[in-house]
What we know:
10 helices; 57% helix; mainly alpha
Amino acid sequence: MQHISDVVSQAVGANRPPRTPNQPDPEQFRAAAGVINRLFADLQALFPAWRQSYPGQADLAAAKRSWTRALVESGVTTEEQLQWGLRRARRSNSPFWPSVGQFIQWCQPDPESLGLPSPEDAYREACAMAHPAADHSRWSHPAVRVAAREISSHDLCTLPATETRRLFIRAYEIAVRRVADGEDLSAEIPRGLPEQPAPRPADPETARRHLNRMRQLLRA
């Protein structure tokens, strides 16, 4: 599998301007289509009741286009992310095809697989470490310490558990993603959700041409 964000985002008309003057060549489109086709082949093997979701070839082709758009828009564009999703899919007990939203969730890093404590264990550790007498040299992983730092010991000790748990879990999820991506853990984690920048619309004619080409490549 290849990194597909640049090629596929243009092919499905994602929220970025088209490349100029050099547009992706047919080989790049074919490679991007191959990523989706292989992903779907793996999922079909894992979920034997997939025909209930896609009874015909037209349904399957439409799903590939829809999933391509959703994956790109969610930032799931690398082989490593897709392999995370497939590993989690293998643990599913259901024979039925997952929604694209479910698969995108599966593509998020799994703390335990990275050698990190689960979110609940990490939260309990953070609460214990908030005590003044705690030994702060014994954190199980820097990601837990970084997430706890963003909440502060004072808040962990004084705010309601429902509030501190919500704040910690969110900070820990970001820290875990940084570990998975090999990023610096020392950067500050924002408490509030960042504002999303306004999307820049692609040139309609170029996006339409790329989308038509991708539709042809994704025909099953």
